[in-house]
Amino acid sequence: AQSVSQHNHHVILSEAASLELGCNYSYGGTVNLFWYVQYPGQHLQLLLKYFSGDPLVKGIKGFEAEFIKSKFSFNLRKPSVQWSDTAEYFCAVYTGGFKTIFGAGTRLFVKA
Amino acid sequence: AAGVIQSPRHLIKEKRETATLKCYPIPRHDTVYWYQQGPGQDPQFLISFYEKMQSDKGSIPDRFSAQQFSDYHSELNMSSLELGDSALYFCASSSGTISYEQYFGPGTRLTVT
């Protein structure tokens, strides 16, 4: 069955620290990949997406992600986090059939 | 820019009652998705519609049904509500012919007492 695995459920960082959130998926075909962010009390918002082309994609608020096909991974990175990045981050994979599979989410807490 | 609209934003129901949640997609979006997010959990896909036809089905209980209307808005009908149905219900929309990037609504928080 298709699945999305996020490596960390909780991450605590200090401001200015670098961030990398892992995401692996299980599907051998063509995928569309997404990272969504959910700030406290708010709905899901798209951070960035990968459909094709350059495997390094840049999103909003200084986030980027790298698609590594051989590793079935789509890790999210940010060089220097801010307190305002405190949120839950969801990796998602679209494999076709109008269904997107979400990972379990990673709660990021950034200490001021 | 117009976003996905959901109503109501909050709903309190008692066990065994029924509830109807509404979703209005972004204009010209033809695909609607419903998700259920329990406390501290990731969004679970329930069901989706493309051009008013059911396009995919996830973990939607038999007590729930949904449809997409001619104006592309969608309604999720929930009957015989149980305490475990308390959750945040998200609707998302996309343009199925362009990309599958989903735009999420603010959600309806359903509390079953």
Q: What pattern of helices and strands is seen along the backbone of chain B? A: EEEEEEEEEEE
Uncertain segments of chain A: none
State which percent range the strand residues of chain A make up. Answer: over 45%
The whole-number mean of residue pLDDT values of chain B reads 91
- Name the chain pair with the biggest interface and residue counts per chain: A-B, 21 and 24 residues
Largest sheet of chain B: 7 strands, mixed
Helix content of chain A: under 10%
How many helices of chain A?
0
Rg of chain B over CA atoms, rounded to whole Å, is: 13 Å
- Helix percent of chain B reads under 10%
- Indicate the overall shape of chain A: globular
| C-alpha end-to-end distance of chain A | 40 Å
- Low-pLDDT runs of 5+ residues of chain B are none
Largest sheet of chain A: 6 strands, mixed
Rounded Rg of chain A: 13 Å
- First and last CA, distance of chain B: 36 Å
What is the total tally of β strands of chain B? 11
Question: What's the topology here?
Answer:
The complex is a heterodimer of chains A (112) and B (113).
Chain A: E1 3-6, E2 10-14, E3 19-21, E4 23-26, E5 32-38, E6 45-50, E7 56-58, E8 64-68, E9 73-78, E10 87-94, E11 100-102, E12 106-111
Parallel strand pairs in A: 2-12
Antiparallel strand pairs in A: 1-4, 3-9, 5-6, 5-10, 7-8, 8-9, 10-11, 10-12
Chain B: E1 5-7, E2 10-13, E3 19-24, E4 31-37, E5 44-50, E6 53-57, E7 64-68, E8 74-78, E9 87-94, E10 103-104, E11 108-112
Parallel strand pairs in B: 2-11
Antiparallel strand pairs in B: 1-3, 3-8, 4-5, 4-9, 5-6, 7-8, 9-10, 9-11
